[in-house]
């Protein structure tokens, strides 16, 4: 058999870069190896600019406006040719960050062709990567790309899901629906209120994720500014470090070992995994509502084959796909959250491989959100079935009648004793009709105003404040 590994163009090993590439491609701009290298170049360039324009290094040339623009164009113009060049350099260095340093020095050497032979950039080799350990560059680069991926790709998709559910909640705030606690018929609610619960849960997680602090450090081999203080003792290195990190849009962390401890990443991944778990609950509930025909699949919107052998079927595959991808994403993100916070003594390298899977974890979440939104967009509430099930569940009125009896007895009425037991005898294990329930109410001897109120009750009208509660949704 032909080796598929030799086929050109190369075949993706994983589904995110193969079958589902169209959905997850936006993450490539942030969480691919190429994007990480581009971010490293960006950080190295900004560090060079920061040191020279702020006169931190005595004797260093001052950059002109044209030179700053030239430097900043290096990460901006990073593309296919530069990716190949980086791979070539790393094949020699066997060190990814060192390859970035050499790549940038090549660009300094080439500056004369664009800026003229008198440009100071050709004399700045020793400023590139000065005072930096690899992790100074890596931690900042990861913070920049993760922040970009969350804020520009994942959050918009996740917010759209929450908004979609909120829209369904508001449209169906007053549509009665039979509840099913423990899978059994239970006190009615409204479809809108149940959707509002999910939307509210997602919104809470989104607020946490939007509030993420993306921490960064640049303080040397063991976080002490040791070499900095020896080489340039007159500089306020803590202030230089802080202003640089904050200038990248990050939060400065002054207390680190060689690595920034990744606690912020652990918090973020735990929060995204929690969002995933809520979304997983949404997928399983929609799947169940579809099986009850409370939501009816819009066959035109689905546009897909159901069973390969049973032509009548249209399977709820969007929700099943979402379930599976949410499970994979959560498992990976929870693993990242639990392992990244540990580093032996001042540094070990386990996080290097681990962090390269951030895109995979977020990619499966993004894919699941896309499927969930498509699935929800392909179903419609089925009021006829909702009404039918309510009309066949008069036993659910046992709860309000029992509570009305209790309240009446507290208010002085007689003959209201043992309300739970009496309703249990009427309702448990048998079908209760409207006629049965009304006859029971009339035989209670309950005060006339209470009796009148109870006789007006129907399963579909027994939804309490459900419709009003939807108004508590934010946004």
UniProtKB/TrEMBL annotation:
<keyword id="KW-0658">Purine biosynthesis</keyword>
<dbReference type="GO" id="GO:0004018">
    <property type="term" value="F:N6-(1,2-dicarboxyethyl)AMP AMP-lyase (fumarate-forming) activity"/>
</dbReference>
<dbReference type="InterPro" id="IPR013539">
    <property type="entry name" value="PurB_C"/>
</dbReference>
<comment type="pathway">
    <text>Purine metabolism; IMP biosynthesis via de novo pathway; 5-amino-1-(5-phospho-D-ribosyl)imidazole-4-carboxamide from 5-amino-1-(5-phospho-D-ribosyl)imidazole-4-carboxylate: step 2/2.</text>
</comment>
<dbReference type="InterPro" id="IPR020557">
    <property type="entry name" value="Fumarate_lyase_CS"/>
</dbReference>
<dbReference type="Pfam" id="PF08328">
    <property type="entry name" value="ASL_C"/>
</dbReference>
<protein>
    <recommendedName>
        <fullName>Adenylosuccinate lyase</fullName>
        <ecNumber>4.3.2.2</ecNumber>
    </recommendedName>
</protein>
<dbReference type="InterPro" id="IPR000362">
    <property type="entry name" value="Fumarate_lyase_fam"/>
</dbReference>
<comment type="pathway">
    <text>Purine metabolism; AMP biosynthesis via de novo pathway; AMP from IMP: step 2/2.</text>
</comment>
<dbReference type="GO" id="GO:0070626">
    <property type="term" value="F:(S)-2-(5-amino-1-(5-phospho-D-ribosyl)imidazole-4-carboxamido) succinate lyase (fumarate-forming) activity"/>
</dbReference>
<comment type="similarity">
    <text>Belongs to the lyase 1 family. Adenylosuccinate lyase subfamily.</text>
</comment>
<dbReference type="InterPro" id="IPR022761">
    <property type="entry name" value="Fumarate_lyase_N"/>
</dbReference>
<feature type="domain" description="Adenylosuccinate lyase PurB C-terminal">
    <location>
        <begin position="343"/>
        <end position="463"/>
    </location>
</feature>
<dbReference type="InterPro" id="IPR008948">
    <property type="entry name" value="L-Aspartase-like"/>
</dbReference>
<dbReference type="InterPro" id="IPR024083">
    <property type="entry name" value="Fumarase/histidase_N"/>
</dbReference>
<comment type="function">
    <text>Catalyzes two reactions in de novo purine nucleotide biosynthesis. Catalyzes the breakdown of 5-aminoimidazole- (N-succinylocarboxamide) ribotide (SAICAR or 2-[5-amino-1-(5-phospho-beta-D-ribosyl)imidazole-4-carboxamido]succinate) to 5-aminoimidazole-4-carboxamide ribotide (AICAR or 5-amino-1-(5-phospho-beta-D-ribosyl)imidazole-4-carboxamide) and fumarate, and of adenylosuccinate (ADS or N(6)-(1,2-dicarboxyethyl)-AMP) to adenosine monophosphate (AMP) and fumarate.</text>
</comment>
<feature type="domain" description="Fumarate lyase N-terminal">
    <location>
        <begin position="18"/>
        <end position="322"/>
    </location>
</feature>
<dbReference type="GO" id="GO:0044208">
    <property type="term" value="P:'de novo' AMP biosynthetic process"/>
</dbReference>
<dbReference type="InterPro" id="IPR047136">
    <property type="entry name" value="PurB_bact"/>
</dbReference>
<dbReference type="Pfam" id="PF00206">
    <property type="entry name" value="Lyase_1"/>
</dbReference>
<dbReference type="InterPro" id="IPR004769">
    <property type="entry name" value="Pur_lyase"/>
</dbReference>
<keyword id="KW-0456">Lyase</keyword>
<dbReference type="GO" id="GO:0006189">
    <property type="term" value="P:'de novo' IMP biosynthetic process"/>
</dbReference>
């Amino acid at each position: 058999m032909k080796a598929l590994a030799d086929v050109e163009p190369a075949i993706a090993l994983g589904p995110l870069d193969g079958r589902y590439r169209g959905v997850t491609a936006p993450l490539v701009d942030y969480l691919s190896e190429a994007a990480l290298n581009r971010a490293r170049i960006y950080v190295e360039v900004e560090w060079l600019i920061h040191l020279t324009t702020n006169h931190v290094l005595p004797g260093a040339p001052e950059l002109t406006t044209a030179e700053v623009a030239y430097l900043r164009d290096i990460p901006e113009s990073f593309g296919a040719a530069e990716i190949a060049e980086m791979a070539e350099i790393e094949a020699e260095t066997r060190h990814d960050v060192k390859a970035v340093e050499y790549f940038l020095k090549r660009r300094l050497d080439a500056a004369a062709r664009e800026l003229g032979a008198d440009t100071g950039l050709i004399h700045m080799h020793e400023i590139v990567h000065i005072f930096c350990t690899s992790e100074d560059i890596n931690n900042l680069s990861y913070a920049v790309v993760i922040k970009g991926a969350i804020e520009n790709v994942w959050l918009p998709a996740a917010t759209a899901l929450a908004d979609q559910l909120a829209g369904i909640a508001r449209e169906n705030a007053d549509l009665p629906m039979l509840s099913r606690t423990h899978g059994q018929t239970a006190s009615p609610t409204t479809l809108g209120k149940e959707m509002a619960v999910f939307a509210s849960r997602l919104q809470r997680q989104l607020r946490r994720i939007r509030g993420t602090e993306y921490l960064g450090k640049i303080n040397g081999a063991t976080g002490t500014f040791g070499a900095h203080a020896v080489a340039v003792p007159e500089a306020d290195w803590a202030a230089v470090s802080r202003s640089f990190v904050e200038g990248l849009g990050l939060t400065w962390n002054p207390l680190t070992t060689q690595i920034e401890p990744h606690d912020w990443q652990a918090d973020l991944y735990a929060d995204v995994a929690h969002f995933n778990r809520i979304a997983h609950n949404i997928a399983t509930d929609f799947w169940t509502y579809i099986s009850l025909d409370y939501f009816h699949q819009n066959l035109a919107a689905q546009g897909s084959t159901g069973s390969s052998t049973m032509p009548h079927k249209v399977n709820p595959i969007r929700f099943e796909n979402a379930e599976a991808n949410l499970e994979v994403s959560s498992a990976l993100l929870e693993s990242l959250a639990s392992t990244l916070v540990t580093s032996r003594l001042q540094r070990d390298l386990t996080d290097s491989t681990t962090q390269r899977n951030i895109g995979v974890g977020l990619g499966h979440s993004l894919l699941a959100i896309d499927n969930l939104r498509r699935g929800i967009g392909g179903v419609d509430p089925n009021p006829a079935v909702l009404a039918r099930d309510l009309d066949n569940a008069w036993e659910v009125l046992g709860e309000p009648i029992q509570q009305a009896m209790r309240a009446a007895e507290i208010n002085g009425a007689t003959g209201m004793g043992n309300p739970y037991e009496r309703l249990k005898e009427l309702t448990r294990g048998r079908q209760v009709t409207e006629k049965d329930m009304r006859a029971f109410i009339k035989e209670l001897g309950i005060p006339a105003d209470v009796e009148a109120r109870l006789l007006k009750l129907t399963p579909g009208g027994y939804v309490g404040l459900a419709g009003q509660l939807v108004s508590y949704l934010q946004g």
